[in-house]
Amino acid sequence: MSEPQNLLEVRGLKVHFPVKSSLLKRTVGLVKAVDGIDLDVKRGEILGLVGESGCGKTTAGRAILRLIEATEGSVMFDGTDIFKLSHAEMKPYRADMQLVFQDPYSSLDPRSKVGDIVGEGLRVHGVHDAGERRERVLKALEMVGLTEAHMRRFPHEFSGGQRQRIGIARALVLNPKFIVCDEPVSALDVSIQSQVLNLLKDLQEELDLTLLFIAHDLSVVEHLCNRVAVMYLGKIVEISSREQLFGSPQHPYTQALMSAIPVADPKAKRERIILQGDPPSPLNPPSGCRFHTRCREAIDVCSTAEPQLVDLGVNHLCACHVREMQMKQARAESLQLV
Amino acid sequence: MSDKQNGNTHKDTSSEPPLLEVRDLRTYFFTREGTVKAVDGVSFAVQRGEIRGIVGESGCGKSMTALSILRLVDKPGRIVSGEVCFKGEDLLEKSAQEMTKVRGEQISMIFQEPKSSLNPVFRVGTQLVEVLKVHHVAKRKANELRAVELLREVGIPDPERRVSNYPHEMSGGMAQRVMIAMGMALAPDLLIADEPTTALDVTIQAQVLDLIRRLRDEHGMAVMLITHDMGVVAEMADIVTVMYAGTAVEEAATEPLFDEPLHPYTQGLIASIPVMGQIKERLDVIPGNVPNLIDMPPGCRFAPRCRARVEHGLTRCEVEEPHMIEARPGHFVRCWLYEDGGEDNA
Fold first, then answer.
1. What count of CB pairs under 8 Å joins A to B?
2. Cβ of residue B201 closer than 8 Å to a chain A Cβ
3. A309-335, pLDDT tens digit by residue?
4. What beta strand segments (E) does chain B contain?
5. Which of A62, B85, B93, B261 is the most exposed place for a label (fewest CB within 10 A)?
6. According to the model, what pLDDT value does residue B191 have?
7. Residue-range domain boundaries for chain A
8. Can the peptide bond before residue B76 be classed as cis, meaning omega within 30 degrees of 0?
9. First to last CA, chain A
10. CATH for A6-20+28-233 (3.30.70.2750, 3.30.565.10, 3.40.50.300, 3.60.15.10)
11. B276 and A274 in contact by Cβ < 8 A?
């Protein structure tokens, strides 16, 4: 049998953090950071995971890598349920699944030289020959546009964009199949951001990598990703191909998110959807659809029943009662016409 | 758009003198490693009721320009030369006492991190009342009522209750509204907003930008909006100054600036941002990094990264610093390409 098409299959992933009382350390509540998400990542694709701060996108990314233990759910990586593995069994998979962090300033050890930072993963994964390590570190650095001379330097000698390149080299050195990029460009200046985005795209094509690209910036995601999932308060509300999602966003939240992005064109006069209020706390999410408190299209059922992800056609999944009804109505009408 | 045309600063065409005029401002930091020229010859003017965008990347001196206007530069920094004329008076000549009256009453400022700008151990109402108290506005009771009113004006729901919240009980967007309320408390003529939405989510950013625009429309307050986000300037500003490595490199009304950016840096900046709805195989890139502000290149500061310089084979860029010239009516640029009919050579 050939390899399954999906490199990664996430099912019913939940991550709940207990909130302890200050005195007796009793659990007084649960922050439902990720509350039941399903996600497939196909081999060789870049899947974007977008949402605002606090929606659980970073937690989801880390739980998938088992850097945070999930409360419930499963993650099949290359056909293996990695949540069932012991720590020792997990280790070879860790080499295949890497992470690039958001903040290139705090994610590199200031007291280690670049060569050691990038080479640490090799040491951990049993490459004991210093010569081989050096060679592989050099190869990884060259892939991200750095040179041998950089190996002996310390992180503080580099600019933000170069540091992020070091972070990417560290992820690449073990020849992973899958990399989670957690907001890799949001700490960078715009002119540097485009350099790093181009680099990620090139590497993905060259090395046939599969990426989960976590971001809050929709325009960056549109540029880079093949498919996009939108999260709101621990749930995925919409998931589709890039063309579908940006061409005709369906979920009211996605629509609001898109219209909120300032466009660098003063003549683009668009109808702005300005959401009222703040996102509710994941400690006590609203009943029914989590977005109904800020949604301008909300109807009665939205506050009572939770919408499920439904295919609106052409693999465009959306969790919204209103859209589901509209779709069914449209279908019924077209049947009558026939 | 017609009323925006008189927003230019280098010519005295408008009948009314500008509210704020900054001339050749220089703020240097004297460190052990050398002199950091954070602001090095910046000039611009802000008209009444206008939103002036100042855009640039980190380290270009945009925040330091704002702090210099309010004379909030700390040691080892010092304003070494220039003029900051506000309503015809040079703020750099004023005594410390006089400046205290200018800050808040005439010019107020809001910052990037709303939560770290508020005092965590006082209720937001107390902090709002303090602004009114320091400037002797009215009696205590009246001040408290005014605080509630201010919170209502910036769109905080249930202001009677919120006024006794501590900053940690508020979200980032809410805290930024409180900061704006404090900035508005004494009805200043100019609000300096330094990256007011950078720490906020996009949907909250849209709310706060909408609020700033509304306050400008209703109170005729001028706004100096400092940001790194070309999208934010495009939507908000009437007129824009682009800064690079301590100097202004281009200035124009918003539409012409985005229609036809003249400076190679501005062109690169606009081309390098991914735009929704326009998928490009590759993003344009400005090669290299921002220069070190201690040993600046001798000629044009952008020369080492400039592709136009290479394409047009200009040699003077690396030796001589260009001047700000009016390349098109109301459109100013600091680039050799446009000087001495340089465009003809191009």
1. 124
2. yes
3. 999 988 899 999 999 999 999 988 888
4. 20-31, 34-46, 51-55, 77-86, 89-90, 107-110, 190-194, 222-227, 239-244, 247-253, 324-328, 331-334
5. B93
6. 95
7. 6-20+28-233
8. yes
9. 43
10. 3.40.50.300
11. no
